[in-house]
Design brief:
elongated, single chain
């Protein structure tokens, strides 16, 4: 290994160690209403009634969708589990076609902003 590669390796290791010791501060006082407001900031306040209806009916998850092995499938704005499967909402920006295909392969439906679940598909 030449000196340049060794130096780069040491820098990466030092960065990892720094991250272990200098963890970022996280706001512990985030409420579910803050999450709702954050989503509305992205999709627009005109969708408040729609989002509140989903919020009251389902548990909105704002985490990546993972396979059983832990691989990230997609990182939607939020997703919900309904009796007939999962729905993922990406806000106003549609996901890449590769992500759409992967979601379809797994039986996960896209949920457009303002779309009703059930009759509105």
């Amino acid at each position: 290994m030449n000196n340049g590669h060794a130096r780069q390796l040491y820098e990466v290791i030092e960065d990892c160690l720094d991250n272990l010791h200098e963890r970022p501060k996280v706001d512990n006082e985030i409420s579910p209403q803050d999450d709702l407001v954050d989503i509305l900031d992205i999709i627009g306040n005109e969708h408040r009634k729609w989002l509140t209806g989903l919020w009251n009916q389902f548990k909105l998850k704002q985490e990546p969708i993972l396979t059983k092995s832990g691989e990230i499938v997609a990182e939607p704005l939020f997703w919900i589990r309904v009796q007939d499967g999962l729905y993922a909402c990406f806000g106003k920006e549609p996901p890449r076609q590769r992500v759409v295909q992967r979601l379809e392969d797994l039986g996960i439906r896209l949920l457009a902003v303002g779309q009703e679940i059930g009759g509105g598909e």
